[in-house]
């Protein structure tokens, strides 16, 4: 089966997977139970993945950092022997956001050819900078924050003061925030969910121009899949947290100073990405339940064609029941 057939056959199938995860996880909004929400999303995502005609290998699993339930790395999914694919999953990007009833939690899934996705078994975090297509050529992770702001502003034909930068609200980012403020740019802090943050930086009409900071390494790969589809740019560097991780990468012969681009993080010509909103946010509307079902809003993208589809769907009680969502 050709690479082109991978995209044609699977692109619109993937949104069913993220819809299922969102519909089940949405019932846990604001209930303060991260692991229960994550387990519900994982179970629904796995169930639908196993109905899709492919031989999928989970390369980027979910939940390793916080020991949440997961679609584990090395798990095989799908119901056919072809096409052979790599899969990156994040059933809930922003689990804490969901559990605390906050916006911008999404369910995400990316698929590429077998062997295409970057694996980072030794280091949990990466330093990242991500932008949209117009500024993809302008970023340099080895340059200063000020230099990147000026370059992105020039590429977008904006004043630096009009730029909006999204970043995780973490103590490790205090110096970056100070540099951004010194240049006069604006900051949109997020508690979690830097896949959504990177996609927002690459999408028009979100009000976000750039993502910067240190976040999860698996999330960087998922975000890179979306940015490959959108034509955006991302640069990353491994960020060992401690001496144990530094020793692990040294022993593996990995250069922590290597700059990883979207093409390094996800190879191949056909990359697919899908995301469905769980709670309302700038990127996607969340799941809205009503007396006779629920509505979802999703994005589905394909790198080969550059197509980005926004899918608004209505789900009736029979579908919700199939995913394990309680229906009165």
Question: Could you list the spans in which at least 5 consecutive residues all have pLDDT below 50?
Answer: 63-68
Order of helices and strands: HHEEEHEEHEHEHEHEHEHEEEEH
Number of helices: 10
Instruction: Decide which structural class fits the backbone.
Output: alpha+beta
Task: Report the portion of residues in β strands.
Answer: 25-35%
N- and C-termini, Cα separation: 44 Å
CA-atom Rg in angstroms? 19 Å
Give a short account of the largest sheet.
Answer: 8 strands, mixed
DSSP strand count: 14
Task: Give the fraction of residues assigned to helices.
Answer: 25-40%
Tell me the overall shape: globular
Tell me what you see in this structure:
- Helix content is about 35%, strand content about 25%.
- The chain is built from ten helices and 14 strands.
- The strands form two sheets. Strands 1, 2, 3, 4, 11, 12, 13 and 14 form an eight-stranded mixed sheet that branches. Strands 7-6-8-5-9-10 form a six-stranded mixed sheet, with helices on both faces.
- Helix 5 links the parallel strand 6 and strand 7 (about 185-190).
- Helix 1 packs antiparallel against helix 2 (about 35-50) and helix 6 (about 195-200) runs parallel beside helix 7 (about 215-230).
- The longest helix is centred in the N-terminal third of the chain and has 23 residues, at about 5-25.
Please outline the helices and strands.
Elements: H1 3-25, H2 34-49, E1 55-60, E2 76-77, E3 84-93, H3 95-99, E4 106-113, E5 125-131, H4 145-156, E6 164-168, H5 174-183, E7 186-190, H6 194-202, E8 210-216, H7 217-230, E9 233-238, H8 243-251, E10 260-261, H9 262-265, E11 272-277, E12 288-290, E13 293-302, E14 307-315, H10 317-322
Parallel strand pairs: 1-3, 6-7, 6-8
Antiparallel strand pairs: 1-2, 3-4, 4-11, 5-8, 5-9, 9-10, 11-13, 12-13, 13-14
